Automatic annotation (TrEMBL):
Residues 129-143, 151-161 have a biased composition (Pro residues). It comes from the Bacteria. It comes from Aquincola agrisoli. Residues 1-22 form the signal peptide. Keywords: Signal. This is Uncharacterized protein. Residues 127-178 are annotated as: Disordered.
Amino acid sequence: MNGLLRRSSCALGLVLPLAAAAHGYFPPKFGGLMSEGGEISVELVAQADRTVLHVEDHGMPIPTEGASGALGIASADRPQRVLALGPGGHNRLVGPAAELRPGDRVVARASFPDGNVMFVRFRVRGPDEPPPAPPAAAPPPFAKPFAVPFAAPPARPPSPHDPADASRPHLSSSGVSP
């Protein structure tokens, strides 16, 4: 039994980091900005002639046919801008060109034909800011299996109502017995 528990904890130690990575960090594939968290990973690519959002769920492309959306860009020194997004084939939502500068904050909203709505956010980093670090791996499981050794409960003093103790009088329905 102890060997089985030890093998199970070793297997769990190998699987937990993989499970943590399944919901975690996906590096950009097209040189853009990755969304800041969530189940769905979205990459924002600002090109010279258009803005593209690449939408994936755990690395698998999500079809955007029939989807629509908007891109809101907020800057400290410029008025807020909103760009309309439409399907761009495969897993892309496409809109007009957007000039993104360091410090800009971007929020994207997309509505899919099946009724699902997605909100993601981005922050444009400056050239001197390091890229975000991938999240830390899951902590390792316990080094030893956690088990509490069986111990008998401590002995209790006899109860005054214990019929097995004949040396003490006990109460009955008719009164005290001798």
